[in-house]
Structure formats: C-alpha cells, structure tokens
Design a protein that fits this description.
145 residues, mainly alpha
Length: 145
C-alpha cells in the first residue's frame, strides 16, 4: 500500500504558527472590543477554566508575577475578577472570575468571527479529530524526566 507524502515537523510548525497568528489577531480584536488588552483577555480565558493562584496564573501566562499583579488589579477594578485567600494557606491569593468576568469572556469568544467560522466549517468528525490531536499534543503530554 502506497503512503501519501509525509508532512514534516517544520511544515506543521509553520502551519501552527500561521494558525496561532490568526487566532491571536482575532482574540486581540475581540478583547479590545471589550476594552481589554490581550493579556487581560487571556487572564480571563485562563480563569474561565477555574480559580487559580496568582503564581500559577503568572506561570500559565508566562509573565512576571509583578506584571500579573497589574493585570489582575485592573480586572478587579472592573469587577471581572476577585481575589480570595487560599483556605489552606492564607498567604496565597486565588483569583476567581466573577459573573461579569464570565460574561465578558464569553463575549470575547463569541466575537472571534474568523476563528469561529473556521471551526464551524468542520464537520463533527473533523472537529473531534482536531480536538483529540490538539489535546494530545498540548494538554496530555507525558511528563519528561
């Protein structure tokens, strides 16, 4: 049985780069429509998955803890997040999305027309395949030693 042409890692990385560029541009415009910076929007998106400690949030967003504090300060001033002391360690501050923060996060996602149209163009089987592959590559990676 003949194999089709092999797609090498460099080509995959290039396509992933283009895809992320389109996604990031779409996200940035949608966040701006809610009067947020891309970093503020990303923080809300991360928190949409659940509360996070300030340090973990900074690590997830790959930014300095002091920068994260400024981002969260501005989101808190707008009533989009709140800080709470951790139940097991009162020195740790957890950041929690408010109902308004959830609404804004959902509005950003809804306004990402280019991304939504691209994904909506996939049939159910392709969507499932894409989900499975992205999860395998970026979420469920085995730990390296």
């Amino acid at each position: 049985m003949a194999e089709g042409p092999r797609v090498d890692t460099a080509r995959l990385m290039e396509l992933l780069s283009v895809s992320l560029g389109v996604y990031y541009g779409d996200f940035t415009v949608a966040a701006a429509s809610e009067n947020l910076t891309a970093s503020q929007g990303k923080a809300l998106t991360v928190l949409r998955r659940g509360p996070a400690a300030m340090r973990a949030l900074a690590e997830t967003m790959a930014c300095d803890a002091s920068n994260m504090t400024g981002i969260i300060d501005r989101l808190e001033q707008r009533g989009l997040v709140r800080r709470e002391a951790d139940a097991s360690d009162r020195r740790v501050k957890n950041v929690i999305l408010t109902a308004e923060g959830e609404r804004v996060t959902d509005a950003i996602r809804a306004k990402m027309r280019t991304t939504r149209e691209g994904l909506d163009g996939l049939d159910d089987q392709d969507r499932e395949s894409l989900y499975t592959l992205l999860e395998r590559v970026f979420v469920s990676r085995p730990a390296t030693t």
